[in-house]
Structures are given as C-alpha cells and as structure tokens.
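Handout, section 4.2: multi-component inputs.
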Amino acid sequence: MAESLKQTEQQFLEYVKKMTAYNEAIGLMYWDMRTGAPKQGLEQRSEVIGMISSEVFRMSTSEEMAAYIAELSGQENLSEVTLKTLEECKKDYDRNKKIPAEEYTEYVILQSKAESIWEDAKASSDFEMFRPYLEKLVEMNKRFISYWGYEGNKYNTLLDMYEPGVTVETLDQVFHQLREKIVPLVQQISESQNKPGTSFLFKHFEKDKQRDFSLKVLEQMGYNFKAGRLDETVHPFATGLNPGDVRVTTKYDETDFRTAVFGTIHEGGHALYEQNISSGLVGTPLCTGTSMGIHESQSLFYENFVGRHFSFWKKNYELLKEYASGQFNDVSIEDFYRAINESKPSLIRIEADELTYPLHIIIRYEIEKGLFNDEINVKDLPTIWNEKYEQYLGVKPEDDGLGVLQDVHWAGGSFGYFPSYALGYMYAAQLKNSMLKDLPNYDEILEEGNLLPIKEWFTKNVHQFGKLKKPLEILNDVTGEGLNAQHLIDYLYDKYSKVYQLN
Amino acid sequence: MAESLKQTEQQFLEYVKKMTAYNEAIGLMYWDMRTGAPKQGLEQRSEVIGMISSEVFRMSTSEEMAAYIAELSGQENLSEVTLKTLEECKKDYDRNKKIPAEEYTEYVILQSKAESIWEDAKASSDFEMFRPYLEKLVEMNKRFISYWGYEGNKYNTLLDMYEPGVTVETLDQVFHQLREKIVPLVQQISESQNKPGTSFLFKHFEKDKQRDFSLKVLEQMGYNFKAGRLDETVHPFATGLNPGDVRVTTKYDETDFRTAVFGTIHEGGHALYEQNISSGLVGTPLCTGTSMGIHESQSLFYENFVGRHFSFWKKNYELLKEYASGQFNDVSIEDFYRAINESKPSLIRIEADELTYPLHIIIRYEIEKGLFNDEINVKDLPTIWNEKYEQYLGVKPEDDGLGVLQDVHWAGGSFGYFPSYALGYMYAAQLKNSMLKDLPNYDEILEEGNLLPIKEWFTKNVHQFGKLKKPLEILNDVTGEGLNAQHLIDYLYDKYSKVYQLN
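Output:
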C-alpha cells in the first residue's frame, strides 16, 4: 500500500514535469516571438503554441489528473513539494472543470475578439464600440464566479487568481488609507514652488551606450548572465523559463534614457526572483513567483528603493556620465536625483511615477469591485472613470482613449489583476522596513555598488520558496505582520518631502 | 462509409499536425541552444527537449498511429498529401516497431556514450579507445538490418534512410566513375606550375563587415528576411521551423573571410529550399527537403556554381572590396577568382575543396559498404583508411585524429549518411545542366546580381514539392535521366583546367 502510494506520487510528479516541460517550450516561443522571430512564421508559430497549450490544458483537466488528485489528497507521508504541487493542480482542475466546456470555448473566442476590437476602439477613442464586448466579458465572469463560488465578496474570487489570500476587506482598508494620504501629498506637490528641472533628461543618449550602462547595473544587482541575457523588445518583460534561463528584455528611447535604465532595473528585479528559486522546485508548477504582487514587489523594490535612491547614484552617476555624451556635464547629482524623482499627476497608468501610481490602481480597483457587485454598469464607465481621475489626481482625460480604454487588461478578461501592482508597492515598502533590521547599512551598500547582500536577503526570505509559500505567508514570515499600507505612506512622505522640499 | 473515411483522414492529419507542432518547438529550442541560450539553463532545456521528443516518438509508434495506418492504407480517394504523409508515417512506424524496445534503449545509450568517448579518442588520437564502441555500433546496426530486411545489399537499408531509392549498385557505378576521373585530375593539379597565390585571403577582415557583406549576398540570392534571420554559431547550419521561419547561422573568422561568406551562401542554399516549400504541406512531415542529398545539392549549387563562379564576382568583387579594409586593393579579380578556387589534397573532409571532396566521401562509402558486408573489420579501419587516403589523395594522416577519427558520424551511428554529400555534388551538376536549357543566360544572371530566376527555377522544379517527390523522382522529372556522374566530371575538368591553366 505504502509502496503503491510512493509509486503514484512519482507518477504524479512525472506527469506534472511533462506539463512544465511543455510550458517551458511555450515560454521560449513567446520570448522568441517578441525578440525577433521572422514575421512570416508567426501564424504557424501561433498554431504551434495553441496546440501545445491545449495539450497542457487537457492534461490539467484529464481523468488521469482527477485520479491523482483523488488518490493523493489527504494522504500523509507525501513530500512538501508534492503536497503543494497537488494543491496547485487541484485549484487549476477545479477552476477549469467547473466551467462548462462550451462556455469556456465561447469565452476564449470572446477574449480574442474583444482584444482586437479594443485596439480599434482605443485608437479611435470609441468606448461604445468596445462596450458590448466588455459587457459580455463582465457577464461571463460573473457567471464563472457563480460556478466557482465565493467567500464574503464575489470579487474575492477574481482577486484570488492573482493574489491568493488577499480580499476585498483587506484592500478596502489599505486602499482607503493610501488614498487618504496620497491624494493630499500629490496636491501639495502640484502646488509646490520647488519643482525639479528635467529638460536635461531628454537629450540624445546613444542606444548602445544605454545598453552598456544597463548591463553594468544588472551586474551590480547580481543578475546572473550565465543564467540569462538582455534583449530588446517593444514591451519590456522578464521571463523565467527555468532558474538557469531567466531572460530580461528592455526598450531603448534615445531621447529618454530612463525608459531603458529603469525598465532594465525593474525587469532585473523580476529576473532575480526567478533565478533564485530553489532548484528542488524545477519541473513543478511551484517553480515561479508566488503571486503577481510579490513578483511586482521585487521589480519595484529594485526600480525605486535601489534605482531611484540617492545613494545608488552616488555610486553610479559618474559612470552614467561616461556612457552619456555630455548630457549631464552641467548637472549636479542633487539636481539629477530630483529630476528622476519628479512626480506629476498624469492620465496614463504605465507612465505614472511611484507616488501617483497607486491612485491609478485604486481607481481601477473601485471600478472592478463595483462591476462585480452590481453597483456599477459598464455603460457608465467613462463617466465614472473621468470623475475619479479628476477627484484623485486632478486630471481629466480629453477622450476615452486616454481614459477608460487605455489598458488591455479588461479586453483580455483579466479582472482582479490590477490590485497586484499596488500590492507590489506596499509589499516592497514592508520588506524594505524588515530588511533594514538585517542590513542597517543599506545606504552604504548602495553607495558601494555591491548590491549582493540585498539579493541574498531576498533569496533567503522570498526567492527560494517559489510557490511553496503563499504571498501573505511570506509577508508574515518576513515582517511579522499582515498587509500594512503605513510603510509605503511613510516612505513616500519622507522621500517626496525631501525631493520637493516641502515643510 | 465514405463519410467515416473522410473523418478518419481528417483525424489522422490532425494527429500528424500535433507531431509537427512538437517538432517545430524542438527545432526552435535547438536553434536557441546554438545561438545564445544561457548555459545554466541547458541541462533543464535538454530534459524538456527529451520529454517532447519522447512524446513524438510515442505518437509515431502508438496504437492510434497503427490504427490510422491500418484504416487508411490502400484506400482510394485520399488526397495526395494524405497518401504521402501516410507513407512517411508507415515507414517510421515499421522502422521503429521492428526493433525490440530494450534494444532500442540500449542503442540510444550506446550512441550517447560512443559520442562522448569518440571526442576523447579523437583528441588523443586513440582509435583503440573508440574501437569497442564502434564495433558494438556496427554490430547493432547489422542486427537492425536483419530486423528491417534488405534488398540486394544489406547496406542499401542504411542508404535508404538518408537517400531513399539510391542503392549500392548505383553508387558503385557513379563513385567508380568519379574516382577514375578525379584522381588523375587531382594528381595533375598537384604537379601544376600554375598554382594560385592565396596569401591575401588571410588578412584581417572585420567581423561586422563580413556580416554586412553576407547579408547582401543572401539578399541577392532571394533569401526572404521576413521569413528568416542570420545569427552566429560555432557550427553553421540552416533550420526550417516552418516555411515562414527558416533561419541561417554562420561563423566568422577574422583572418579568413571565406568561412563566413561561403558558409552563409551554403546555408542560404539550404534555406531557400525550406522557405519555398508549398504552403499546402505545412503541418505534415512532407514540409521539408526530400533527402539529405537533394538538400545538399541546393547548398552546394549556391556555394560553388554561384559563389565560386567568375561571373558572380564580376558583380560582387568591388562590393567585397568596399567591406574589406584594403586587403584586395592590389589583387585583380582574376587572381581573386583563382585563389578562392584553389584545390589541394588534404586530410580533413570538412576543409576539402569541391574537387577533392568527393574522394573523401568515396573512401567512407567503400569502408561502410565493406563493414556491412563483412568484408572489413572495425579493427582494420585505421590501416584501410590511411591506405585509401594515400591512394586517392596522395596524403597520409600522421595520426588517427586526423584520419579515421575525424568525423562524428559513426560515433552517432549514422552509417549510410556520407554518400549524400557526394550525391549533392552530382545532383547539383545535373540540375545545372538542365537549368541552362531554361536559363541559357546563366552567366549574365550572375553578372547582373539578380539571382531570382535561379531561385524561381529551383522553386518550380525542386523546392515546392518538399517530400511529395522522392529524390530520384525529382532528378528524373527535371533532367530526364537518373543519377549521372558525367555532368560533375565535365564541370570539374572544365573549371579546374582553366583555374590551373592545364592543357
């Protein structure tokens, strides 16, 4: 009996390993598509990706999978990796099996249609064009929630897909707190007389030199080039194919070096996470970041707490000057620092700075929550959107292309995703607070340019576990508390008071 | 009944499409491994490739495949694509099923062990170290032949794997003819007083400039960059993932530009073949070159009949000078042409010129044929090898590393592969002869640098068919005759008499 259980466990792990192998192949095909695959091969490549993805989906919902779940669930003497893998597989299985097959197919078709309509609607700022698709997407997601069930709030079921354990109850509280504190700070800054000069940021900076500097920074961060590479794409990303192959991409703007430099640092933060997951998790679904939010905490930590920190530039400003062609010669490090930390309310989320960014997310959160609790209708979204932007950020979109239509997420049916971005900021600030206890010389570490202790701290406390620990479990284990917005608020007040010389 | 047959046909094609999709993913992973995949991810990547390859193997020998073969074989009203696909699948199925599973596994392990031992044996010129593995490989292949059966000559079964339809009877005749004619020509050349000067070939030629020139030449050939790309590797290759994605790689030697330029032209010839296969064959095993030999005819045609043709350089020599830094300034086009067509007996096959190359192949053919007809023993290979090199090429290896151990093929169990290379030369010369009837202005085409008519001729007569036609079928349809060594002999006599000013 025990012998046969051991055998089933082995077979289950082999089965899962095959699914992981297929996913790794798919991951490489996506990377290739986005970094230089020949255009004319893409139609066939998409078919290949589709066929292999279908096979993974089939395996995740097969009778064989059902049998493994039935036989292994509740068994003792299984390894921790098996238990957690089983848990992930069961979650997937339940989620996928509860939707009737015809509805799932209808939904996949709707998604792809909606994305293509959304592109046109955004380009022509025509919300009415997109509205029926968005209504249908919301309606189908509501039906899915009824199949899946929910606890407390219907929207929790969607949140759980991206940030397991995080609920409306928690988010209401932290987002309220953030909003109450950030809105007046943003207000104060926009009235400040001490705005930084930024014109020197936009001078010509050669692409190859930006790349060379970015590589230097990745190296300082402890990114392992034997387990990765840096390529160019339109939309930067990091992808962990396995811990020995985690690739970073970036984008170069020759009249704004910040795109590549902060973009690379951001993606580098994601990459460090994937490179340092315990090798014992390779070949299982646990071998990736535990959630969108924790992943984002790593990228944002490096982008903001490292890349936009004064001490980091004490080490690197002279180096940057060497790569640039004279653009910073007359600029003091203090002026440079203030310029790269400029904060200004804006319309577009992906262009927002770290202070205003959470407000963009809160707006989307409030809307999504309203939609799934029947408090907001899709037809009213443009009005609600614009009102909230005016209220929280003091700006108003001229048209829906710059407003409610700006993000692809809803067109893809990704409701519940947005909050992860803001969680990333809060997690990062909380982790930083705990890190300071172990690394009280944090500023010196940055000044010396040897960032390895930071990477090692994250590997020990976050990276290595992959999905073995849930996001809030990691947070609790490291910080001794749950989600707490105060750390982010303190950081933002402290930093921006100085940058804008507020009193 | 007819309805259900139609259905089975569709299901069979879907089944095959899935296998093709897996192979495309594997192809991309290999390309990636050889062009810059991070080292530390390779162990896991190999596992992924192994798992997906196993799945393809499983599918090719499954009960489902057996059922398709049984149900569809002999049926009328199937499309030509289905019929030929079925034929390919049946051939694979029979080949794989006739070997007992344990023996197959034993063989795979032996192969990989033998390759690794061979590397060491070659490095230390120690044939005795490699001998037991080679003996075992030959022995197992003999046993496989007994499982598979043979017609006429046991070695035919091995030849058929690489060049379907080509037999010992044919090869004996053409190789005898080639040997009788080439050996005295090589002899005459080595005694010639009119040897070309070549020292200017080995001056410094910047890598990036070599790349730029290579791209220009690919463009002239009609290589479609929207369906391909050029990368750098240690061992150049071309890979057709699908007709819209056919990639070329090359190698740069800054003190010998010929490596990159002729290498790119050679691989470009392979690539044109794969880019121009009919789109109706995508998703089937027919969507690739019909045989090793016909593939090689395309690469060798472009390398020698285009790239080493005087008219080609009439167009391109000035361009080459622009990319080079002064290296050819004092060199007339006539001297340049003679230099790149130098012929000299040498020990190493992959470094041989087009005149001596076939002799390297004939030696290997005679040895393989002897091995599988029990006329040669593995233990005598070094002696036999060296004797033949002295007899045909007038050179004698100092050690077995430069002799019998130089090629990886036997270590990988690829017996029957070598003849394809020489067939490529003969096919190319025969095709050229037929092409001249349609394109009598061939030399002018080269001089003008618009090589598209050549590509179009090949597409019409060779490329488009993929594996729909067998190699000798293509040869017959295009040239109206079977394999005929005379065209290659005429070409070599004509060309080398001029290059060496023989009388």
